[in-house]
Known about the structure:
The complex is a heterodimer of chains A (about 550) and B (about 280). Chain A is globular, with a radius of gyration of 25 Å. In chain A, the strands form four sheets. Chain A has a six-stranded mixed sheet with strand order 6-7-8-3-9-10, with helices on both faces. In chain A, strands 16-17-18-13-19-20 form a six-stranded mixed sheet, with helices on both faces. Helix content of chain A is about 40%, strand content about 25%. With about 550 residues, chain A is α/β, with parallel strands linked by helices. Chain A starts with a strand and ends with a helix. Chain B is mostly helical. In chain B, helix 4 (about 80-105) crosses helix 9, helix 6 (about 125-135) packs antiparallel against helix 7 and helix 7 (about 140-165) packs antiparallel against helix 10. The two termini of chain B are about 30 Å apart. The model of chain B is unreliable at about 1-5 and about 280-285 (pLDDT under 50). Chains A and B meet through helix 16 of A and helix 8 of B.
Amino acid sequence: MALLDVRNLQVAYGDPSSDDRTMAVDDVSFTVDKGETLGIVGESGCGKSTVARALMAYCRTGGTIVGGEVLFDGRDILHFKDEQIRGLRGSRIAMVPQDPLTSLTYHMKVGPQVDEILRIHQELDAKAARLYTVKLFEGTNLPAPEKIYDRYPHENSGGQRQRVVIAGALACEPDLLILDEPTTALDTTTEMQVLKLVKELRDRLGTALVYITHDLTLTDYMCENILVMRAGKIVERGKASSIFSAPQSDYGKMLVSAIPRVDADIAETSPPANQSTEAPLLTVDRLSFRYRQRWSVGALFNPKKEPLVADDVSFDIRRGQTLGLVGESGSGKSTIANVIAGLLAPTSGTVTFDGDAIGMIDKHRSAELRRRIQIIFQDPLSSLNPRRRIETILTRPQEIFFGIRGSVARDRAVELLEDVELSADLLKRFPRQLSGGQQQRVAIARAFAAKPDLILCDEITSALDVSVQAHVLNVLKGIQSKTGAACLFISHDLGVVKQVADETVVLMKGKVVESGATVTVFEKPSHDYTRLLLAAASRREDYADVSNSVETAGPQ
Amino acid sequence: MLVNDKSLFSILTHSPGTAIGVALVSLHLLNAIFAPLLIPYGPTQLVGTPILPPGHPDFLLGTDVIGRDYVSRLMMGGRTSITVAMIGVLGAVLIGTFFAVSTAYIGGLYDDVVMRIVDTKLSIPGILFVALFVVGFGRSATVLTVVIGLSYFPGAVRTIRAQTLTQVPLAYVKAARLRGESALSIIFRELTPNVIEVVVVEFAIRTSSAILIVSALSFLGLGIAPPTPDWGLMVSEGVGQIYAAPWLILLPAFFISTLVVGLNFASDGLANALGLDAARGLHGG
């Protein structure tokens, strides 16, 4: 008998009796055996997290489980009484949610939060619970578990927090562990550490895992069996390896092909080297940046130096070229983009654009200079004013930079929309009425409305699903080659950078550790950190060895 | 479009409480507007024997302590305080919005100075501030309106500024900055439209509190001056007869409370419908 047997599960949002309810999960059935790992893959909104919650007989507000059975150990938990369910949750079925910062309580130290689980389910006394918690922390490879025990959540890094949550989830040695996008909020290298840990723990404890993710490559690494979900339904199921190498359904094929792969061949060769004799469009020379301490009376008496966010960074971008800037969060990538855009003034070093020094912030820049450098931000929704129609969003830059308004500006807005493969119908819409991919394409259109020479792309696809990401990147490439604009492409995703960049710069803690032609950086990385990123990105098993050598070496 | 693609009607009938609140407020506003056409006697005219009980054939709700028709006075009694409260609060919220959005956007020393002034005002007990102001400048509707405006200005700045602070770091503001929009353009065109929900709710909530304050002042003899009919004033005039003729107090109290309760229900419902949980619990602030 399977440990978990889900039969025809149906979850609806909205009034379950009315017609306008939406089926978030529709007729989903699967089983999970003891010690098995099942991956559930799908894009945002496909209902995978709703399934995860239903496995604990829980629904988000507004949702109702309207049909089906969730048999755990042969008994349908959907018909359990509240106290029976409470007995299961946390002890026999545990869950690791996506964001470790919000799943831990801010005001409590992390140790006692795990103690609580042990004291409720195992009825341990305070002392025993503490000892056991420290042991659990050891088991999840947390450094100095005794010290971590007495830390507050914010005093730990994202990876440490997620390990605390995992320790809590494993506290009662559950039979079933549900991981709902446990590493989405983490860096690639941290992600790999956490996943390796989960794998080890699974093998040691024999826990069954339901692993939910939008990242198909991760399921390949983690799971034996995979379900692919779309719009609440299962569209494909099978062995992980077979789905990854030969997907059957159209949707599965599309998902697999949309994944930017670090091990893929570089299709287009970089522009010929003779261009390097031409003066670069943008030169960043020995750029450093540190935030100034926030003004306060206390700061006058106790001045502190904030750490350098960018440290001695140099690179060039030639006309029409795309430069990839890679690094983990906190490596200073966005800061560099903000300095070039004029949102921040550099602490030292120079930025030269087309022969002129531009180390000043936006209000000291000429309108012409502001026009020539455009930035596209990470979160497409927040970068478009929610109260402006797409028409206004696309005509306003034309009015400011070229003095074009009225029907001329409107016609050009339609052209811009066509360039990003959107229809003119969208002009009257508000940003919220568009999908994430459409929003980001509008943001691209807005940037190109200024006819820029340099475009700064700050993680523009990290908020998007894989298939949407592929489309947005194509649109960007298309409009870029049409206009001949150069591009600084910032991303933590090496696969994406490999796809778009002619040259790549790798940043680690604010310093450039490696730079050169994308082919060279990816094929023959010279720095250990680059190798680590590449190993993490390709989910290679030798990742751990590389990781150890980098931790000892540090940035050079 | 006000907000969230919801029609005004669906917002105003969001829940039974909201609908009741909106109905009460509408009735009061209609009454205040049309009362002069409807009342049987002039509200300041002496028309009958003092303290006639309700149910008298000529005077539906009786007469007051000096023989004026109570129905006429009750119907007219909200006009002044509602006007004073609404104009005062409207001024506070409009000027407050400008300061709130600009401090949140500009920050730095300007923000510090404005906010410390706001803190200073917030540290003075409300009723004391109002009382001192009225004693100093005299009792008139204009003085009351100004003092209400001054009283509610700091709270409005705080609430709206807090909401604006959630918007300022968003990329659309950076995008506006980078295309060279002026600070004023960013304040009015980019930020203000995105905090308008809070401004509306702020206005509704503060108005109900302002009506209470005006009534309390009138009761204490610091508000609207006799013989103008006013509920707070009527309660105070009736206090002497509290045992003999309790309706003299209960009737105006009923009018005040239905209006204030209605406003609170309506503004709570409005806040909920607009998804502003943070705006709740502001009453009396």
